[in-house]
Write a structure and sequence with these properties.
Cysteine hydrolase, Rossmann fold, Isochorismatase-like_sf, alpha/beta, single chain, hydrolase
Length: 180
């Protein structure tokens, strides 16, 4: 099966200098660099997802520095950048068509945020019939609050990875993935 790498929203907004810094983003980006390099070396197509918010939004504003893909994981050559306006990278984009055009039959997902855009793209991809592998240490998220309960980022991230592993995807560390 031909594999493709989907790099979700590794944008400047999520860095410590951005408006929505994520817990563990530095480690996730370091690992993403390794995975992207591996994919390029193996000839696996790399698809970059970039979120843009509606005009006037406080984060990911079109044309802003925050909406730019982080330089360390920027596309090279003819690697496509799929711009999305929704949480799900398949919604109202040509991601599926680009995967099909590259004859991708299984995908590896890395990026941000574990509990939002990673969740949405993994579930949508599986619903479309793609086998999916999520590299947990090349993903990051942030602390959440619901109903007066504070959920540390590590717990939110672990919950998502456990849910994927339970019924949606294979979940591996970058080291496990690269060692095969």
């Amino acid at each position: 099966m031909k594999r493709g790498l989907v790099v979700v929203d590794l944008q400047n907004e999520y860095l410590p200098t951005g408006k929505l810094p994520l817990t563990g983003i530095d480690t996730a980006v370091e690992n993403a660099i390794r995975v992207i390099s591996h994919s390029r070396d193996k000839g696996f197509p790399v698809f970059h997802i970039r979120h843009e918010s509606a005009e006037g939004a406080p984060i990911f504003a079109k044309g802003s520095t925050g909406a730019e893909i982080q330089p360390d994981v920027a596309p090279q050559g003819n690697e496509p950048v799929i711009v999305k306006k929704h949480i799900n990278a398949f919604r109202e984009t040509d991601l599926k068509q680009q995967l099909e055009a590259a004859d991708v039959q299984e995908i590896v997902v890395i990026g941000a945020m574990s509990h939002m855009c990673i969740d949405a793209v993994v579930r949508a991809a599986v619903d479309m019939g793609y086998p999916v592998t999520v590299l947990h240490d090349a993903c990051a998220t942030l602390d959440l609050t619901f109903g007066g309960v504070n959920v540390p980022a590590a717990h939110a991230h672990a919950t998502m990875m456990a849910a994927f592993e339970f019924g949606y995807a294979t979940v591996k560390s970058v080291d496990e993935y690269l060692s095969v």
